[in-house]
Amino acid sequence: MARPLCLLFDCDGTLVDSEPLLADEMSSSLTDAGLPFQASDYMGEFRGARFRHIVAELEQRHGSVDPARLDTLECRMRANLNRRLASELIAIEGATEALAALAGHPMGVVSNGPENKIRTSLAATGLAEVFGNRLFSAYTANCWKPDPCLFRHAASLMGFAPEECVVIDDALVGVRGALAAGMTVIHLNRFPDVEETPAGAIMISNMFQLPTVIGHLETGRALAAHA
What is the CATH number of the domain that holds 63? Predict the structure, then answer.
């Protein structure tokens, strides 16, 4: 019998509802640095993107900012964000229930965020014990979504081939990176009116649907193995 599929979850916007807090902190910090930015810009254009990628795009539009000032800005922004995450963060609706239903699967978190932010987010929402140390940060791997190498790195350390992995991600950068890594991808599309699920990915609109989809995938694997 084949072992259960390995489930690789994004963190922000998939497991925890951190993106509004992140967008708010980015808005105040970047605007103070001379890079006009609104919270809606993050949610509409940059959701899931690396912070320095966002900065580079804004500098092309509004002019460069002194690198030392940017370093100070980022440190202050992340410190403020971590404080807010610890006290204000909640889990995405249905995430706790989905993880409980899927407890027989090996699971990891694959995020473009720093590892300390992942740990803070999971601890604040009561999800830390589900994943233990199976946390794969782009800052640790030095590889950011949509590059598929972050997903391949996580799969390798989990001991699974790409075709044995299912990625659950709400952001298009993650969906595209996981597809490029050769993995099955479930797109948690919480904004279906404005966001299209890429070809090749499976769309769900909420986390309550996830266990059923995983069940169907496992059934398909079993039938294929006995065909």
Answer: 1.10.150.240
Is 12 part of the annotated catalytic residue set?
A: no
Q: Which residue range is the domain that position 49 belongs to?
A: 19-86
What's the pLDDT band for 193 if we cut at 50, 70, 90? confident
CA distance 44 to 114: 22
Which of the following is catalytic: 10, 12, 17, 169? 10
Q: What distance in Å separates the CA atoms of residue 178 and residue 152, rounded to the nearest whole number? A: 9
Q: Are residues 162 and 214 in the same domain?
A: yes
Q: What's the structural domain count of the chain?
A: 2
Where are the alpha helices (H) located in 145-227, listed in sequence order?
149-158, 172-180, 210-225
If pLDDT is split at 50, 70 and 90, which confidence band does 168 have?
A: very high
Q: Which residues pair with 6 in a beta bridge?
A: 165
Same domain, 27 and 127: no
Does the pLDDT at position 119 exceed 90?
yes
